[in-house]
Design brief:
The chain is an alpha/beta fold. It contains eight helices and six strands. Bound molecules: 3-methylbut-3-enyl trihydrogen diphosphate (2 copies) and magnesium ion.
Length: 243
């Protein structure tokens, strides 16, 4: 068997379970989201330390507008505050922030804050942190197609790929979803075509370094065939060893 012994270059995470984490403690849901930010900070640092190059996290989906107004405004506020507060440390760690998603519908103040965080970290070389906020996989495919159509360009797999919101990074190698649910929830529909999926029952605030390492170790045991047969992969691995 040929294994992917390397650390995944790009990890994507559906950070789910904040609400349940809070409810179990008789706290308001937004307290769970606050704890979720702490968990994300720990995860970013762990990814930097392990040599992961890209981390893409789902922070607010196109469908999360269906939540109670109070929770929505709490999440908006939290994003703005967390980014502003974390930028200095993220910069020290070499993390570049990219906010991915539809900016329309966000307040001017929040949009300005997101642009500032992107600008202030643009030169950081170690890890790209894509924060998907007001993002949906269907939105991304549709906006990419609309842009190509407006420019009168042909729609091909390559042109679509380049017009999409994550065109600055390779496709994710590993997609982790916490919180026990086994669904994609409109996350990276296009980019996850060949991503290895990993589901954890831990709630996002409880997802720590050990849990990340377990996910990476599981990934390293997978055989990524990309349509080929196991025999083909072993033959080419053998060829590389001989060469
Ligand atoms: C995920 O946690 C974070 C967001 C969707 C913003 P949830 O808030 O969905 O937590 P659960 O699934 O209700 O526990
Ligand atoms: C997915 O979680 C979105 C984020 C983590 C931001 P949800 O909790 O919104 O997903 P569903 O609605 O249960 O599928
Ligand atoms: Mg949820």
């Amino acid at each position: 068997m040929s294994h992917t012994a390397a650390v995944p270059r790009h990890i994507a995470i559906v950070m789910d379970g904040n609400g349940r984490w809070a409810t179990r403690r008789f706290l308001p849901r937004v307290a769970g989201h606050r704890q979720g930010v702490e968990s994300l900070r720990r995860c970013v640092k762990a990814c930097v330390d392990r040599g992961v190059q890209v981390l893409t996290v789902f922070a607010f989906s196109s469908e999360n507008w269906n939540r109670p107004a109070e929770e929505i405004s709490g999440l908006m506020e939290l994003l703005g505050m967390a980014l502003a507060r974390e930028v200095p440390q993220l910069s020290r760690d070499g993390v570049r922030i990219c906010v991915i998603g539809e900016r329309q519908g966000l307040s001017d103040k929040l949009s300005a804050g997101l642009a500032q965080a992107e600008h202030d970290t643009a030169q950081n070389p170690r890890l790209i942190l894509n924060v998907c906020f007001n993002y949906g996989g269907r939105w991304d495919i549709a906006q990419a197609a609309a842009r190509l159509a407006a420019r009168g360009e042909p729609i091909t797999e390559l042109s679509l790929d380049r017009a999409m919101a994550l065109s600055h990074v390779p496709d994710p190698d590993l997609l982790i979803r916490t919180g026990g649910e086994m669904r994609i929830s409109n996350f990276l529909l296009w980019q996850a075509a060949y991503t290895e999926l990993y589901f954890s029952d831990l709630l996002w605030p409880d997802f720590d370094e050990a849990a990340l390492d377990a996910a990476i170790a599981d990934f390293q045991r997978r055989e990524r065939r990309f349509g080929r047969t196991s025999e083909q992969l072993n033959a080419s691995a053998e060829g590389r060893r001989v060469a």
